[in-house]
Amino acid sequence: MTIQDTTAADGILLQTSNLTMRFGGVVAVSDVSLTLRELELRCLIGPNGAGKSTFFKMLTGQLKPSTGAISFRGAPIAGDDPHAIARRGIGIKTQVPNVFDGLSVREHIWLAARRQHLDRRANDVVASVLDRIRMTHLAGAQVGRLSHGQRQWVEIGMVIAGDPDLILLDEPAAGMTHDEVLRTAEIIRDINQTKALIVVEHDMQFIRMIAKTVTVFNQGAVLVESTVDAVLADQRVRDVYLGKKVH
Ligand SMILES: Nc1ncnc2c1ncn2[C@@H]1O[C@H](COP(=O)(O)OP(=O)(O)OP(=O)(O)O)[C@@H](O)[C@H]1O
């Protein structure tokens, strides 16, 4: 079956086929074929330099793949510009901060919602997003006064305010306190009731809290794809993380 034969009717949301990204002589992503179904929550792990961020950048249009295809809801999107891909329904929270200290939580969410919806609808969306990120009580707070974790939740809120069908989260739990990590896992599980997600993370405890299927990248290629328990028990995964804790 070719990538063009698959449609939304198969329940497949995203499919990459032999996706490859070369930077000169460096093959950052090599022949990655990955399928994500509607409402899936996929975790993507792998050691530093494994190609996870490069893979995300191809999905969002920041990078044009050297070869291979990406299909989203059955439509080819590889090489499309980031705005076009966002409009199709792929949203991302990157590791780069995207908030303004002087604006309130509500203003951030409203601005993100307003890009997608008319004023009245945007207000409803803001209320529901604030509830989903558990920040209704902090709606009026300036983002500059929030904790690191709270700022991350605002960024997640800004992504869901755009109502994407697929949400990419790049290390959402990085730098968080234990309580913030627990809350983030809860927020992500809640979002997954209505949205598909791909989450890149290094924190294995966090992965255990949210993961169903885990895809392991190593040296640009998919090493293993399985349940969280099977992946963490896999000797090949242990070998690539040699010297690092994977449980
Ligand atoms: N713009 C670029 N030019 C040249 N090489 C690059 C570029 N971007 C990434 N690479 C290389 O591609 C490989 C994959 O990098 P990438 O950042 O995708 O890995 P990663 O799995 O996201 O790592 P980390 O977990 O550290 O974020 C690395 O060898 C990296 O040095």
TrEMBL record:
Residues 14-244 form the ABC transporter domain. It comes from the Bacteria. Keywords: ATP-binding, Nucleotide-binding, Transport. One of its GO terms (molecular function) is ATP binding. This is ATP-binding cassette domain-containing protein.
